Amino acid sequence: MYTLSTVAAAEPETSKLVTQDAPTLGHGVFEFELDYRLLGATRRLDDDGESKSRGRRRDQTWLATLSYGLTERIDVGIETGWAELVDRDGPGPSRGDGFTDVSMVLQWEFLRDETRRLSVAYVGGLTSDTGDDTSSHELGPGQGYWSIDQALLVTKSWNRWTTNAELAFFLPVGDDRDGARGTLEANVALGYQLREWVQPELELLWNRERLRGDDDPKRLELVAGLVFSASSRSLILLGGRRTLAGRSTDVENELIMRIQVEF
Questions:
Q1: Whether 222 contacts 244, CB under 8 Å
Q2: Distance between CA atoms of residues 219 and 228, nearest Å
Q3: Helix residue ranges, H only, 28-163
Q4: Of 71, 38, 148, the residue nearest 103 (C-alpha)
Q5: Eight-state DSSP code of residue 133
Q6: Where do the domains of the chain lie?
Q7: How far is residue 215's CA from residue 217's CA, in Å, rounded to a whole number?
Q8: Three-class SS of residue 252?
């Protein structure tokens, strides 16, 4: 979840494109987010990290998230979306579309030190197997199983600078998980409030999936973006993500656009 802080040189915005921030919304505050993501890949990193050609892949995803400040330090939220998929690599289906899985989360900001401008939060959530799964004739955006999602978030600001750190683990559950054994993510983000209305930001993302009987996919990614303050209660975020290195994973390039509104 994200929060819109007072946009001023002394209080930089903490929202980032990918890495979550720790501050909660506040009691009684709603927030709506609308995301558009366009992902492409024509290369793949093999088990040794060597780049190989692959068939063209293109994903378009629209995500909608509604969050609510249940108390001053506890937020709840729900997210779902729609995706259109194209993947011309391999003998399976090459196209598909459908609803993504529904995710429900609770964020608890258990530490808030206003003097040090430091916040720490725990996020617990559940992703349900409600999206459209891949079949023998069509691709689907659903992950194909339920998962328990957890994350620890840290946000620290000083002068015009702001940084977020996120450590997350997604645990598959149920008989439909097949070989999936979990995903570990570690992300950091750094932003600088250049003007009252704009903040450039950079993020470094690390991800590792655990698969039974297969080489675990791993990747290191870079995110670069801009956070625009459209008003005191709304943001526009624009940027891109690129795979820098990894094993058993696609080299992905992704455009990310988001609108956030509090009310």
A1: yes
A2: 28
A3: none
A4: 148
A5: P
A6: 30-262
A7: 6
A8: strand
> Quick count: other Cβ atoms within 10 Å of Cβ 137?
9
Is the per-residue pLDDT at 253 higher than 70? yes
List of residues 6+ apart from 101 with CB closer than 8 A: 80, 127, 128, 129, 130, 131, 141, 142, 143
Strands (E), the chain: 30-45, 51-69, 74-87, 95-99, 102-113, 118-128, 146-158, 161-173, 180-192, 198-211, 218-231, 234-247, 249-262
pLDDT band at 8 (very low <50, low <70, confident <90, very high): very low
pLDDT single digits (tens) 14-51:
999 999 999 999 999 999 999 999 999 999 999 888 99
Q: What angle do CA 54, 60, 61 make, to 5 degrees?
A: 130
pLDDT in tens, 163-182: 999 999 999 887 776 767 88
Give the separation between CA 128 and CA 135, rounded to whole angstroms.
18
pLDDT class of 7 with cuts at 50, 70, 90: very low
Cα dihedral 62→200→204→177 (10° resolution): -10
Give the residues across from 152 on adjacent strands. 122, 167
Class of domain 30-262: mainly beta
pTM here is 0.91
pLDDT at 1: 53
Residue 123: name the closest of 172, 191, 190, 73 by CA.
Answer: 73
Could you read off the pLDDT of 81-100 as tens digits, one per residue?
999 999 999 888 899 999 99
